[in-house]
TrEMBL record:
Swiss-Prot/TrEMBL keywords: Aminopeptidase, Hydrolase, Metal-binding, Metalloprotease, Protease, Zinc
Keyword Protease: yes
Family per record: Belongs to the peptidase M1 family.
CDD domains in the cross-refs: M1_APN
Biological process per Gene Ontology, one example term: proteolysis
Gene: pepN
Designated name of the protein: Aminopeptidase N
Xref: NCBIfam families: pepN_proteo (TIGR02414)
Aminopeptidase N-like N-terminal domain mapped to chain residues: 31-174
Amino acid sequence: PETIYLKDYTPFGFQVDEVHLTFHLSPRATRVVSRIEFTPKPDAVDRSFFLHGEQLKLIAAKIDGQPVSPDVTGQGLTCDVPSTPFVWESEVEISPVTNTALEGLYMSNGMYCTQCEAEGFRKITFYPDRPDVMSTFTVRVEGDEKVMLSNGNPTGSGDGWAEWHDPWPKPAYLFALVAGDLINHPDRFTTKSGKDVELNIWVRPGDEDKCSFGMEALIKSMKWDEDVYGLEYDLDIFNIVAVDDFNMGAMENKGLNIFNSSCVLASPETSTDANFERIEAIIAHEYFHNWTGNRITCRDWFQLCLKEGLTVYRDSQFTSDMRSASVKRISDVIDLRGRQFAEDNGPLAHQVRPESFQEINNFYTATIYEKGAEVIGMLKRLVGDDAYAKAVALYFERHDGQACTIEDWLQVFEDATGRDLGQFSKWYSQAGTPRIKVTDDYADGTYTLTLEQSTPPTPGQPDKDPRVIPVAVGLLGQNGDEVRGTEVLELTEAKQSFTFEGLPAKPIPSVLREFSAPVILERESTNAERAFLLAHDSDSFNRWEAGNTLAKESRVAMVLDGAAPDADYLDALTKLVRDDSLDPAFRALVLSPPSQSDLAQTLFERGHTPNPQAIYDAAETFAQTLAEALTDSLPRLYADTTVQGAYSPDAESAGKRDLNARILSLLTRLDSGEAAARQYDAADNMTQQNAALACLLKAENGETQSQAFYDQWQGDRLVMDKWFGLQVACAAPEKAASVASELTKHALFDMKNPNRFRAVMGALAMNQAGFHYAGGAGYKLLTDNLIILDALNPQTTARMCSAFQTWKRYDSTRQELIRSQLERMLATANLSRDTNEMITRILN
Ligand code: DPP
Ligand code: ZN
């Protein structure tokens, strides 16, 4: 397969002035007629007229009305064209109903829909399918569907047709079309300048009662972007459509966002608190793309983080404002460590702005998205809030309507602040997670913190330069009072010391407050000091972090030395759980154990070979010991944290229910599921029903409830995804693979639906001890299924290969078992480019 390099970028030799598309819809033979106005660029370096096109049957092509015969290959076509402006016309035929890859135009439950990012438009018609080619689109849809939508504003409709015009120039990846038997949930929004916008969420009949939460989230997002970034919506209408079969979470097509139904449909009976929060965040994310992504887009796909990192950063700001900022920060760091650190410290490590790829779909990663957002958070921390606002305003003023690069982004910060961001740009060009070693010293009233940074090698990048790293630090006195408030130290050298004068005694440092940089901190400390910070730190992130480190160290000792759970930590934990003065959501986070994958990584970095079963056993022992230590308190705690009354998804109630669920899981260890069974029977919302079922399945005492759940929800696709996933997630290590295997034989298991496939196979990969259970049944089962899926849907297959990315952490037996599965996959005939690239990278 061909590798594409950033350094080879050349602009397209033609300007696209206007695009007219007509669709004659038909499941097996949709005709797409295009009429595109091209103007050769006078200064073009490359004058060749190449249009991307894949899996298209060319019916006819014309230039200025005269038939032409272009050279067509599997990738596109070339044609001789005039050196003056000309009109290109083509007619192609495509088959949406057989499109199981879910890229381009496809069908989901009888409804037509599209997914064009990154390179799906070339499966719809011949076009320069690259993000730096921007044009206005006029679209006519003909068919007998009740509702026919495209981007922009509606300009007319009648029996069997609808027309749309999008006045904002856009790249083809933002094109969208939806047609089907849909019902809308309507609302309106008046922008700050008084523009009246029609809002709709379009769903299949039967789902109309699951739209109101998403609509509220949309309205809140529109308002927030006006208030915080001054950005206003720019069309007469904003449509969201829910689709069941979708590779990703959602897509920000101009004026016509298409959502995986799991990321927009919500009701108390069918959605958990976590679903509600995620839906709110994703609706905001896609809406925010209207400016960061659509109005200002990416010059090429290497710049993907330009829109994704910034938009994730913006949606995290939004969630912090709507909910609890500290809870959001802690949750984001847990997620970052779980997904991005795993990626950054393994064979798939890549730069926030990669310099080469084979298949761009493989780079919609935690590094581009979440680390991309962290980089923006660091930039804001370094320049300050006012300068950030100034630079971002300059970005919109200077680049509206353009396809940009990371250099453009950094330039507005340099221009707005006068700061040189040369060293900062290494965050984009160097892969890997920096380690910061912290040592300290105190003498004669002066406290010295010494920070030493290094970044381990990553594929293709053996050596790394020091980066500029904002390290937020506060100092506490022995009594727990803060003697120095938070200060941001700028670490720029490989090793650097910072002094704090005039301190009467040696302080206790609170380093990397708010997780001010995506790094791994290495600092010798004691459990006593950690317990002190857990009790006193005024920075809630570091407070949680102290508890998290205690939990980790205790487990490391349990795994390596067969130690008992750390008594001081248990003691601190039992106090914290009962401390009603603390936010329940925070208590829930303190109670949530470090992930087993995280522990495996920690052990690996310290030179040990992690044993997934031992890690699992330590987690079980710890939870059992904690439950027993809390025996007397659990029933009261459970009762006190049970949210009464009508369900509301607000952050406060959700935090309380989260704590309640964690207490129920401890209680289940003592009462063998009595309370959980009662909760299951009484539950009138999915959060409590789901939590109870999880506890019962984990206790291997949930068959009745699992059957009842199935009977109640078998007609609801999204709830059934939970049913499939929970059984695998809650299975004991020795059973996980066989439970998953049985579920793949279930009548409702559907390889072609990414949500269902992920529910089972994703849950297997996440069940660490189950996936890595001795013998390798988990590896084989996942590989069997990935091989089948690859022929249907390369994109989802390739993404799920990352389950194997941590394989080199493990013992040689497991490594050999995994290697043989990866090699088997690689040897599969006609393996997709997507999967081939992933496996090759993982093996190297
Ligand atoms: N651009 C989408 C998103 O991140 C993914 N295709 O929102
Ligand atoms: Zn995005």
